[in-house]
Write a structure and sequence with these properties.
Layout lengths: L1 H16 L4 E13 L2 E13 L8 E8 L6 E11 L17 E2 L2 E9 L3 E9 L1 E4 L3 E13 L4 E14 L1
Antiparallel strand pairs: 1-2, 1-10, 2-3, 3-4, 4-6, 5-8, 6-7, 7-9, 8-9, 9-10
Amino acid sequence: MRKLFIAFLLLLASFSLFAAPSFGYSLAPVGAMTATGNYGGLTISAIFSPSKELHAGDISVSVDLSPVTPFFEGVKMNVSTPLFILLDHPFPWIFSNQVLWAPTLMAGAQYRLKNDWSLLFGIAPFTFQDTHFVYEFLSPYAIYSFTSEKWGWGMYVMRFSYFF
């Protein structure tokens, strides 16, 4: 595990050598159905982007909050990168300004209450990038729980990210 973490840090450092890094935050309503229980709430994230223009290799640390007790649902750490980026795309009618369409892949880890560790794998097919913003709509992800050894799923309904 330690070797994997060191390799991950080296990969992150190599990204930042070639681009101007950026920091941001995001808010998203989220819902998930897992083996240990269902939850819905709000995800608040801090994001590090090694490349502000491409958002390749973005790292986010998220906290899931619920409107009912227990208010704290868990913590996530994700790495995401776009599959491709298009300026001329089939969705120009969604935004009044010109944005890039950038379907994104995501992988990460999650810790939930009751010592539940999980892996996350997701895709955000409707991701759009602007100069300072990233908009994601209907982004499903799969959850594999090490505790119960079962699969679950979740979805970001709308995720809005702002980068400084």
